């Protein structure tokens, strides 16, 4: 991608004397989807306008061309999966059923003495769905992590409270019999109490 960016900048610098403005964009599309590339129509006279593509080789290839015979209305031409439309100010390139082979540097413009005169350049990158899932923004991952930590802490606290309640209930069950046994040990049979009373009276 760095090579495409560098090439786009060099093209802009080279065509600066031929055009009044040079723009560079970057677009990401999904396989099987549809994407629309746009560039400004800087031609001041009716000419042939082209969409070029630069992939692996050094030479750009023409994808689709259109003759600008007039400056009113909307012109449109379709070639396979590519549809080129234009109006007074902009050029568009619609790509249907996007494939990985569509990745590359696209630019629109005219030809002057056989050399491309570029208006605008767009780097198209076709990304797989798996890449989009793995490249989740850091704030989202942080929020999910915090929620999981809070949930685990709350769950552990709830388990600790329930366990604590069971332990207290068991302590009460164990303490109750010991209390009754202790109270019963202080009681004496009625015959024994009467005998003690008789002995105490006799000594007096």
| Average pLDDT metric | 71
Biggest sheet architecture: 5 strands, mixed
Total individual domains: 2
Q: Which class of secondary structure composition applies to the elements?
A: alpha+beta
> Mind telling me which CATH architecture of the largest domain this is?
Sandwich
Give the helices and strands as they follow along the chain. Answer: HEEEEEEEEEHHH
Radius of gyration: 43 Å
Strand arrangement across the biggest beta sheet = 1-9-8-3-4
Protein name: Ig-like domain-containing protein
Pfam families: V-set
Subcellular location: Cell membrane
Keywords: Cell membrane, Disulfide bond, Glycoprotein, Immunity, Membrane, Signal, Transmembrane, Transmembrane helix
Mind explaining what this structure looks like?
It is a single chain. Strand 3 (48-54) and strand 4 form a beta hairpin. This protein has two domains: 2-133, Immunoglobulin-like; 136-203. It is rod-shaped, with a radius of gyration of 43 Å. It contains four helices and nine strands. By secondary structure, the chain is α+β, with helices and mostly antiparallel strands. InterPro entries: Ig-like_dom_sf, Ig-like_fold, Ig_sub, Ig_V-set, TCR_complex_component. The chain crosses the membrane at residues 140-161.
